[in-house]
């Protein structure tokens, strides 16, 4: 009977060791890739650029309408 308990103990020890060693070498999942541009940010950049162009043109054209004696520089 001593050999049967020895075999059972050895089998239990081997099972526990196998589980612990597999957990120790487990790797975490790789992080998800960064999202790619869906075009919204490109559209927003174009809109900002057009607003800056409109603002510059407004400041350049408005003095010409306000008075004819205004000079740019």
TrEMBL record:
Signal peptide: 1-26
One protein family per Pfam: AGP
Keywords: Membrane, Signal, Transmembrane, Transmembrane helix
Top-level lineage group: Eukaryota
Parts of the chain that traverse the membrane: 42-61
Keyword Transmembrane: yes
InterPro entries: AGP16/20/22/41
Name under which the protein is recorded: Arabinogalactan protein 16
């Amino acid at each position: 009977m001593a050999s049967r308990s020895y075999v059972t103990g050895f089998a239990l020890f081997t099972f526990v060791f196998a589980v612990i060693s597999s957990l120790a070498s487990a790797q975490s999942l790789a992080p998800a890739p960064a999202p790619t541009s869906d075009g919204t940010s490109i559209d927003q950049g174009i809109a900002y650029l057009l607003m800056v162009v409109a603002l510059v043109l407004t400041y350049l054209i408005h003095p010409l309408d306000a008075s004819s004696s205004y000079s740019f520089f």
